[in-house]
Structure formats: C-alpha cells, structure tokens
Amino acid sequence: MMVYLPESNHLVVTDGGDSAVQLVDCKEYRIIKTIKLGQGVDHGVLNPVNKYYYVESGGGPSARHMFSA
Prior knowledge:
- The protein is 0% helix and 55% strand.
- It has no helices and seven strands.
- A hairpin with a 4-residue loop joins strand 1 and strand 2.
- The mean pLDDT is 84.
C-alpha cells in the first residue's frame, strides 16, 4: 500500500515483506524514516481529515498501529 502526501511531497509505503512503514522523500528519492512493525502487516489507509495513517497487521493485541502523517 502506498499513499502520496502532496503537501510534503512524501510517499508513505506499507511494506508487508519488511513488516514496516517507510516515509519516502519524493524530491530526494530516499527513505527518510522507517517504522518497524510486527509480522503480518497487511495494509494501511490515510484518514484525510485528521491526517493519520492507520496500519493493520496480522492480529493480536498490537494488530493496529496509527501514525500521524
């Protein structure tokens, strides 16, 4: 899952293979932040109202994670 943030020219990438969320600077074409998560990262969605990016992973008590975009 990827979401483009035009205000900051960043791309948020949810990577199930690496079990992480990465923030990519689209001007420099480089990863500027990585947040490692538990296994089973499935998908993410951006709430356009509050600018929070929600990530769901494979279950358990810490299955959902929320990040401010």
